[in-house]
Each structure stands twice: as structure tokens, then as C-alpha cells.
Design a protein that fits this description.
This protein is an all-alpha fold. The protein has 14 helices and no strands.
Length: 317
């Protein structure tokens, strides 16, 4: 057991030193990696296909970037980070997760095995839950902005603009996050990316059924013909109806969601109040043995209860 603790502490210290080194030298490492990429391209010569789409590096250090390229599930995680609007790379996220788990193990060594097991479980689940929350929050904002973006495209097409020009108009006028996605879509079009590939990438970044309907409508119209403005106008009505339905569902499920938040915070507030008012009353819960075990069980129960209540209040529409 002592060797395991020492090994975990050593790994945590090494990861901390590595994180500090990357944070201090991040700009220099990125410039060096870009310089190596340019030299590699010059060495390969002008022959070959030039990729105009920017590659996402999963770590600012080439060694870890190559290592993460072959790990399963990394591509899915790398696709979720832009959808969550997080400026982190996969390497930074995994590094923070590892440091959190190591800190939880250190807490377990101080407070006991039961508390340590609960702390490790919470530290392991916290990044995934936070990432999922950010993805859902940004998806809701994108869904609310999509009808306005479609209306802008319809008005621009009826005014005589082409579809790429209409998308550029949306990119200039609509705020983030939808405006940011249309900026990238317009830039890919300007650089020569095929419209189908650009729209498929837009769908993957935005996510959701509404974006899939939008992309499908444009691609089907390009294959079969017809009035694109009429198709998009009908789609805008469908998307608006879905937004209204989502808001109605949010109102109907407001009570269980509020109950989950109140019941999740209430035990922490009560414990803190008792600790301030009468520390001797809760002192047995802080002592090694049964008290800390019950405290860890209570913390785990609060988290599980919050997740269950939140899941019950989540309705697919």
C-alpha cells in the first residue's frame, strides 16, 4: 500500500511539473511544432495533396500528441471539446483529470479509505459531467439561434445572394455561438472545401436534430432542385416549434429540477451551518472511523440523488 501511494504521488508530481512546463512554454512549443510541420512539408516537396483544413493537435507536446492519436475514444473526446466551447486540448483535459484523481487519492490518505474512494469517484466523474453540461448548454443556445440564422439565409437568397454569400452574411451579423460556426463554415467555403464536406462538419460541431435537418435540406435541394428559400422557410417554422416545445417542457419540469438543486445544496449548507454554530455536534463525523465513513456515504448519496432527479426531469422531445 505504501509503494502504491508513493507511486501515485510521484506520478502526480511529475504531471504537475509537466503541466507547469507546458503552461510556461506553450507558445514556444506551438511555434516549434508549426516550424517542424512547415519543414516537413518543404522536405516532401510540392507533390501530393495539400490539406487546407487545420489539424487539431491533442497536445502541445509532439510526443503526447502522437501517443493520444492512437488511443481509443480520444477522437470522440476531441470532437466534444469544440461543442462545449472549451479552449482546452485533450491533453490538458486528461492532465487535469489525472491531477484531480491524484489529489483525491491524497485526500483519502489523510481522511481514510472510505472518504478516499468517494473522492476518487467524484474526481473521476466530475470532468465528464462538466463537459456534458457545457455541451448541453451550448447546444441549447445554438438551437435557439438556428431559426434566426435560417431566416437570414432565406432573406439573403430572396434578395439575390448565393448560398455561400448568404452564409457569409449570417457569419457577420449573428452573434456567437452560431455566428462563430457560420464564420468557420464561410471560411471553409472561401478556402475551397466542398459544400457537402463543410456542411457535414458544421453538423458535427453543432450537433442536434435541428442542425441535421438544416444540412439535409440544403443537400437534398442541391441534388433534386427546387426553391431553397421555400424549403428553408418551412424548416425555420419546424425549428421554432421545437424551440417552443423545449421551453414548454422546461417549464413543466422546473419543479423537479429545482428540487434536485435544492436537495443537493441543502445538506452541504446544513452541515456548514452546524459546523459554524456548534462544532462539537458534528465533530464525531470528522473523526476517523465510522464518522468519516458515514460522511462519505452521505456525500455519495447526495450526488447520486441529484443525478437521478436531474435524469428524471430530462425529457426527450
Amino acid at each position: 500500500m505504501t509503494l502504491l501511494v508513493l507511486a501515485i504521488v510521484f506520478i502526480a508530481a511529475a504531471l504537475l511539473v509537466l503541466a507547469l512546463y507546458v503552461a510556461v512554454n506553450r507558445r514556444r512549443l506551438t511555434e516549434a511544432q508549426e516550424a517542424r510541420a512547415r519543414l516537413r512539408a518543404l522536405r516532401n516537396g510540392p507533390a501530393g495533396h495539400a490539406d487546407i483544413v487545420h489539424d487539431r493537435h491533442r497536445s502541445s507536446m509532439p510526443l503526447f500528441d502522437d501517443l493520444l492519436q492512437g488511443l481509443p475514444g480520444i477522437a470522440h473526446l476531441d470532437a466534444l471539446l469544440p461543442r462545449a466551447a472549451l479552449p482546452w486540448s485533450v491533453g490538458e483535459l486528461l492532465l487535469g483529470w489525472a491531477l484531480g484523481v491524484a489529489l483525491a487519492v491524497a485526500v483519502g490518505q489523510i481522511w481514510g479509505r472510505t472518504v478516499g474512494a468517494v473522492a476518487v469517484l467524484l474526481a473521476a466523474l466530475a470532468p465528464a459531467l462538466y463537459l456534458r453540461h457545457r455541451v448541453r448548454h451550448r447546444a441549447a443556445r445554438l438551437e435557439a439561434q438556428l431559426p434566426e440564422a435560417i431566416d437570414m439565409i432565406v432573406n439573403a437568397i430572396r434578395a439575390g445572394f448565393s448560398l455561400p454569400a448568404a452564409m457569409q452574411f449570417v457569419a457577420e451579423e449573428l452573434p456567437a455561438p452560431m455566428g462563430t460556426e457560420f464564420v468557420r463554415l464561410a471560411e471553409e467555403q472561401r478556402l475551397g472545401v466542398d459544400l457537402r464536406d463543410a456542411l457535414v462538419g458544421f453538423e458535427h460541431r453543432v450537433g442536434g436534430i435541428d442542425a441535421k435537418l438544416f444540412v439535409t435540406a440544403i443537400l437534398v435541394q442541391r441534388e433534386s432542385g427546387g426553391s431553397l428559400s421555400e424549403v428553408l422557410l418551412g424548416l425555420a417554422g419546424v425549428v421554432r416549434d421545437r424551440v417552443v416545445l423545449r421551453d414548454r417542457v422546461a417549464v413543466l419540469t422546473a419543479e423537479p429540477r429545482a428540487s434536485a438543486q435544492v436537495l443537493g445544496v441543502l445538506p452541504i449548507v446544513c452541515f456548514g451551518a452546524l459546523l459554524l454554530l456548534d462544532p462539537t455536534f458534528v465533530q464525531p463525523m470528522l473523526e476517523p472511523g465510522l464518522g468519516r465513513g458515514l460522511l462519505a456515504y452521505a456525500a455519495l448519496s447526495v450526488v447520486v440523488g441529484y443525478l437521478l432527479l436531474s435524469r428524471i426531469a430530462r425529457i426527450a422531445y
